[in-house]
Amino acid sequence: MTEFKKICVLGLGYVGLPTAAIFASRGVKVFGVDTDITTVETINMGKIHIVEPGLDSLVNEAVNTGNLSANSQPEPSDAYIIAVPTPFKKTNKPDLTYIKAAVRSIAPVLQKGELVILESTSPIGTTEKICQWLAQERKDLSFPDRVGNNADIQVSHSPERVLPGNVLEEIVNNDRVIGGISQNCTMRTRQLYKLAVEGECLLTTAATAEFIKLSENAYRDVNIAFANELSVVADKIGINVWQAIELANHHPRVNILQPGPGVGGHCIAVDPWFIVDSAPNNTPLIQSARKVNDDKPKHVVEKILATAEKNSVRTVACLGLAYKADIDDFRESPALTITATLTERFDGEVLVVEPNSKKLPDTLAKIKGITLCDLDEALEKTQVIALLVDHREFRELDRTRLKNKLIIDTRGIWS
Ligand code: SAJ
Predict the structure, then answer these.
(1) For residue range 188-207, what is the model confidence (pLDDT) as tens digits?
(2) What is the DSSP string of 66-81?
(3) Which has the least CB within 10 A, 31, 118, 306, 402?
């Protein structure tokens, strides 16, 4: 099998950019592609546009050595890794627009012997669809869904499994599922990842790889829903849920996850719907879990409003907007939903503290009555503090400063 000298990574976000930088650090020439021109320019200056520990220096080094460059169009390469978002539509149906656009963009440059890998979390059957989309554009090439091992182009799915905040470590050390459309696709894909991955490469089919990835995130969603349901019950009867869960987890076969303000992020709050889409009548548990987690922000808003009203307070502070601690990612963030809903319903001022952002996200910026401020100002101005994200700045806060405050701690760091 020929070596991989040049690879193209499509989508330079939370997964694509670290992946591109890691391959570049292994001596592979990497062309990063993004449709956002500012992202492309930022990366070509050796800088980054997202918050992820260690990524800035890795990208800077990769750009300086000439191994990483960004552009808005793909360059001919030995392999193409697609790491673009797969959001869902308002109807909870998967939206494959970005994947389709990425596939269309590589079609003109594709040559016999090259490999296409889908890393984006996708509904079952998407990798096969990629073969069909490419075949429509390139009638001169053969694809593995039709001709199997002897196809001109190899196509695989290898879902990313990295945890935002720990991406660089996890890309290298996590075990990686690799599912080719044919066996040759699988083997060739393993050859590529072996340049960067030290975890085990677990080989399967493309459809099984798609199913595995969705199952992992649905598993997490269902288990968080259980914790969130317990937290609502505990609130009702006046029990400290954090302590209860900690003690329950001493049982050798119990491991309850942590309740929170709801479930956010582009993965766990979205991917379970892709399984539901494959079998809407056979997924009552997965659908219920989504509902429990989506309802949790409403419960938190009610708690904040009740606390403010009971104490005749005219200003409340929301600490954190990101979907989880120590990142700047606001996608599907329950903290954002809570802050927006609260402002609509609260007849006073809402202060927001988000240490990982210098400005309010667009969805909040247009709402009247919200002010972004720092932690000191928030603590000075209000008595009602809603802790929505357990960012380091809040975890490390001197607790004596919370004396006499009315606290709604959705993360259990001060409870
Ligand atoms: N959360 C809780 N309670 C918990 C754990 C998490 O409320 O006990 C909440 C978080 O606050 C957050 C959401 O769940 O709002 C998701 O956070 P997360 O840290 O569990 O996961 P993500 O979305 O950042 O990353 C997940 C990971 N998948 C799994 O852990 C199964 C990651 O490995 C995947 O690569 C990623 O989704 C993805 O891209 O699919």
Answers:
(1) 999 999 999 999 999 999 99
(2) TSEEEESSPPP-SEEE
(3) 306
Q: How far is the CA of 263 from the centre of ligand 1 (A)?
A: 8
Atom number of ligand 1 nearest to Cα 293: 7
Closest CA to 188 of 1, 393, 345, 391: 1
Distance 224 CA to ligand 1 centre (A): 9
The model carries a pTM of 0.94
List beta partners, residue 408: 386
Burial class from Cβ neighbours inside 10 Å (0-12, 13-18, 19+) for residue 121 reads buried
Q: How far apart are CA 40 and CA 46, in angstroms?
A: 10
Question: For residues 86 and 66, what is the distance between their CA atoms, to the nearest angstrom?
Answer: 30
pLDDT tens track for 36-78: 999 999 999 999 999 899 999 999 999 999 999 999 999 999 9
Residues with CB under 6 A from ligand 1: 121, 160-164, 216-217, 220, 224, 257-258, 260, 263-265, 267-268, 323-324
What tens digit of pLDDT does each residue of 130-166 get?
Answer: 999 999 999 999 999 999 999 999 999 999 999 998 9
Whether residue 402 has pLDDT greater than 80? yes
Who's near 310: CB < 8 A, 6+ residues apart? Answer: none
Dihedral in degrees, nearest 10, Cα atoms 22, 26, 27, 33: -20
Query: Which one of 171, 219, 224, 299 would you pick to mutate in the ligand 1 pocket, going by the greatest count of ligand atoms within 8 A of its CB?
Result: 224
Strands 370-372 and 384-387: unpaired
Active-site hit among 8, 29, 213, 296: 213
- Residues 6 or more apart whose CB falls under 8 angstroms from that of 246 comprise none
